[in-house]
Specification:
By secondary structure, the protein is α+β, with helices and mostly antiparallel strands. It contains 12 helices and 15 strands. It folds into 2 domains: about 1-160, no CATH class; about 180-394, NAD(P)-binding Rossmann-like Domain (Rossmann fold). Helix content is about 30%, strand content about 20%. Strands 10-9-8-11-12-13-14-15 form an 8-stranded mixed sheet, with helices on both faces. Strands 1, 2, 3, 4, 5, 6 and 7 form a 7-stranded antiparallel sheet that branches.
Amino acid sequence: MLHRLANHNDDIRRLLEKGYAISFDSNYLVIRDVPYLDENKALKTGAIVSKLVFVDLDHVTLEDHAIFFCGSHPHEVDGTPIKNLGGGETTLALLATDIKVERSFSNKPLRPDTYEYRAFIDLFEKIESYVGIISAPALELYPDAKVLTFRSVDANAESVFKFNDTLTSRAEIGELALKFKEDVIAVIGLGGTGSYILDFLVKTPVKEIRGFDADHFHVHNAFRSPGKIEENEFGKRKAEIYKSRYEGFRHGLNIHPRYILADSGKDLEGATFAFVCVDKGTSRAAIFDLLVEMRIPFIDVGMGLHKNRGPIDGMIRTTYYSAESAQDMVAKKLAPVHDETDDIYKTNIQLSELNALNACLAVIRFKQLRGFYFSDTDLNHMLFSIHDLDWGVK
């Protein structure tokens, strides 16, 4: 990544050629080996971290004039804190373990003619400016100290995404995104709601996603499926369609053209969570039994829609089964585990906005369980009523 960006961004190339110890971490530019003085005038080494904005896959620009700093507040040669470094103590999650963000700094350059603040021209000017402020006292007291070490820093662990996750870095939620790094998620059933759950999970930094569905993709599926539809997709397996649709986005995507049955334990080995998105009660019952036996926590989704009074009415359901209490939850019969006797005459109404809403609720609940979203209640069963847009939770 470093050399690719250096080939397309003159400011990064100049920093690299000058000898700065450059690396990239969670879509931040990191400059290591920055000498500074602590309050006792002892020589310390810190790191500058600057947020990047990816214009496209190859070109970046700086977002603002501020930086993060790994180290204590730098001091002058007389032991006083360096002035004009606004900001304060803060934290920022990085993948690297050898550095730790402790504070942020804010220092704008001045126009030499008017002494008014201006924006930095590029990343080269920004890094040079901050290094000059932070390191000058240290270089004065310790002339053998070096800023330009030409050190090659090993790349951090590979991202699950095939291009840069600029959303996480721009929002500064890296420490929350790390909560998913060991998750292996099974999506059982890739119909209306399951396909939207898959779409949301593809953009979540979980370690692996396993999708299961042996059905074929027909025209009616196109009306309740996310993403672009190609005419040549009709008649193919859903697994093939969704693998092709998302494999360019991320690693760790394994979608299989088969059902999860009572004897499918091998398919679910290592899974840390599952989403059950099937229509038939008997299929759901077998899947429930397998997940309970394997102690895999899961969320089951479903909807019951009808047009008895003309306009469509009904409810959508999201039910969570923890590994510890799943058997008790199953016994409450909150989800149907039997097929209706007149199922052959039943109209299976599903609409994309309700499928998407059901998927949203399921994924939000999963992310609450992981601590990504805040939750002050222990929700296990959520019902949403169409006619009054009302929630029932317990």
